User: Fold these one by one.
Assistant:
Number 1:
Amino acid sequence: METFGQVFNQMDTYVGHRPPAAYTRRLLAREEFIALVALSGDRVVGGLTAYELVKYEQARSEVYIYDLAVLEAHRRRGIATALIREVSALAAGRGAHAVFVQADTGPEDAAAIALYSKLGQQEHVLHFDIPVGLDDASAPPPDEVREQ
């Protein structure tokens, strides 16, 4: 987690509130969670986390790369590409039909966008963060939302 915190400059997010060991064991035991690390000797220099998303419209899944980071001193050595290729191979072994990742459009993600562009096809989509626990004033009228 330190690697993600260092690379994303978010140490408090990744290290400041570590979950209890039991939580981490449960997460790592989940079949749909994927965690990969790149080592230099015994030091973690890169990592990737991903989630397999089981689809409902067809009997298939997709793998979403949630975090991918390589320490600055270890970049330009193919580590990120190797991590992506490994998760792609794992996805194929699980019968997934796609692997996808998001990137910010700002200059801080320019290298990531260049890498992803070499490995895959870019789609133009919007991403929205919706707050948890929307109150009634901000929710759509009940006749527009139906649970299935």
Note: The beta strands are 33-40, 43-54, 61-70, 98-101.
Number 2:
Amino acid sequence: MKKKLKIIVPLVLLAAALGGWYAYTEYNRKPASMENSPADFVTNTATLLGDFEENEAKANQQYLNRVIEVEGAIRAVSKDQTGLYTVTLGDDGSLSSVRCSVDSIFSEQASGLESGGGVTVRGVCTGFLADPLLGSDVTLVRCAIIKK
């Protein structure tokens, strides 16, 4: 009986230590940067907005929770109270836009962006907010600045 305990106890302790290490690493794992993630779709703001405005259900199936790389003109760059940037892409003549919440590791690059310039961003599409009066928005999160 003592021989079995001498074998079982260290194995149980080893399994518990490995399980604890695995749980710790998974709990502290950071999401992958969009800078190195391959894009599922490469498009521009007009095409992306047009797809959602034409058929929202079809566009949701195509783009929702996918990595999208979007090129477009910068309409606005804003910084919230926590220091995170949002880059709004779209034509000045349209009320609709693509809102890109920039990942915090790209804050320095986002701070250098100016309205009227062009940019390419890559992020995860989280949906479409349709408002006929105020304009519609496609929302991308965890965005990386790919090209200025």
Note: The mean pLDDT is 89.
